[in-house]
Amino acid sequence: MDRYVVERVKTGIPGFDDLLGGGFPRGTTVLVTGPTGTGKTTFAVQFVYKGAELYGEPGVIVTLEERAQDLRREMLSFGWDLRKYEEEGKIAIIDGVSSVVGLPSEEKFALEDGLNVEGFLRYVYRVVKNINAKRLVVDSIPSIAIRLREEKDIREVLLRLNTILLEMGVTSVLTTEAEDPKRGRISKYGVEEYVSRGVVLLDLVEKDVELKRYLLVRKMRETRHSMKKYPFEITEDGIVVYPSGEIY
């Protein structure tokens, strides 16, 4: 009997794929979690941008925390020209912020105010199919709860979101907040990690009288992986992970 071989999706994050046997399992849903300022948005956008730049895989970014124009400007600091790939039909950014703050959106893809969960999922599905996306980012889960007024039913919302992502066959990165992962709480609601097939924690540790960034793969189905903490940096070219420099 032939052994099942998991197809891998290269993330475009130097050093990270070495921890996962070559990358994310194709079609999986990965939660990237951590406190504010640890690099979650950069990690997620790098996954989509490098997918388009290096591997010819179109991607969708659902931005629910900052306007698309602000995201584009911020990512230019890494040399990532999102608009270039938008114009080529390789990246689509869904603006989920403008309507919330009461401003008209000038974006090609924008969520309308008052969308319920089903409307949100249908819209994302339509944009994914529009550009034949292979990668998807939703930044962030807490903003979905607030945006869709479904916080009390967050587990059900996430289950439905995860199900439709798996049905679409895209490899997805969802971001969430972890206020104090050192005390064991690695997501804002305490349920996000249970409906994701993978969990990557980004955090800070004090070492030699300064704060260092580290990354931990908490869970990744279909993958043998280390449970050690590995240092990473946010460089002028984006995130770089150092798999030979485990913290412990």
From TrEMBL:
Keywords from the named record: ATP-binding, Nucleotide-binding
Q: What positions does the domain KaiC occupy?
A: 7-248
Species assigned in the record: Thermococcus profundus
Q: Which InterPro entries does the entry link to?
A: KaiC-like_dom (IPR014774), KaiC_dom (IPR010624), P-loop_NTPase (IPR027417)
| Family annotation (PANTHER family) | UPF0273 PROTEIN TM_0370
Q: What is this protein called?
A: ATPase
Molecular function GO labels: ATP binding
Query: Would the keyword Acyltransferase be found if you checked this record's keyword annotation?
Result: no
Superkingdom as given in the UniProt entry:
Archaea
What CDD domains does the record tag this protein with? KaiC-like
